[in-house]
Amino acid sequence: xxxxxxxxxxxxxxxxxxxxxxxxxxxxxxxxxxxxxxxxxxxxxxxxxxxxxxxxxxxxxxxxxxxxxxxxxxxxxxxxxxxxxxxxxxxxxxxxxxxxxxxxxxxxxxxxxxxxxxxxxxxxxxxxxxxxxxxxxxxxxxxxxxxxxxxxxxxxxxxxxxxxxxxxxxxxxxxxxxxxxxxxxxxxxxxxxxxxxxxxxxxxxxxxxxxxxxxxxxxxxxxxxxxxxxxxxxxxxxxxxxxxxxxxxxxxxxxxxxxxxxxxxxxxxxxxxxxxxxxxxxxxxxxxxxxxxxxxxxxxxxxxxxxxxxxxxxxxx
Length: 317
Prior knowledge:
The protein is of the alpha/beta class. 40% of the residues lie in helices and 13% in strands. The strands form three sheets. An eight-stranded parallel sheet has the order 11-10-9-8-5-4-3-12. It has a two-stranded antiparallel sheet with strand order 1-2. The longest helix is centred in the C-terminal third of the chain and has 17 residues, at 245-261. The chain is globular and about 50 Å long. InterPro entries: AKR, AKR_Detox_Biosynth, NAD(P)_OxRdtase_dom_sf, NADP_OxRdtase_dom.
């Protein structure tokens, strides 16, 4: 494993690499052999943080959810768990385990651990908000998993800032294990998190772990006005951005910085995001080693002030 700087997840003892490998493609656009190659190369490149969810890849016809966890579990069984590897999964969207009721959270956690072949998982997320379940019930259920040794730390994903604050306050009032990180939608083209979530994270010591940091592939630079069609399940959404003047300004800025530094546009986009306040690690997925190679340089890529300013200005809402 290559030596890289590791960052803490909030005030926890978990330390992670700047690039978090997303497992949403495992069992979807990456079959098991390709997934194993990506996982091998990620670890060899200094990666220490793998993210998945129990609902991956239930959206594929014939799949029932848990396929990504199963692939990762088989890889761990075959390769052995690398030292320092942090594994995260989520609950709330699996077809058989929807929502954040206490019974559902406990059952889903055990099902995930079975698929992963683990006795405990490092980070367990509430994948979505569940307004039908009292927050205290959900917060207590997650805390009980920590007490039982099934989960080391707790995270929240797709929760509004006011709901995150309420969850944290319940934990403080009831003496429960509190979330240490939040996974928001955040990128050069989606900066809404800066309005309320980033200040909340700074106030409460939360780490941010953005997803869609490449805007569904648009910020890789492979989508161009008048360019060839891109073979990707997300091509429709990414191609639509070619009609957005702000998106094109960002693309031009990425081209400038990437050319100056001699790295891929994707690495530049993720490096900008990795250096935003409270961000500990940025998620990105790769269907194969070739895609991953463009991402790995973010582990050590630190943008100069002029490059950062150019991207920040170009992406201003």
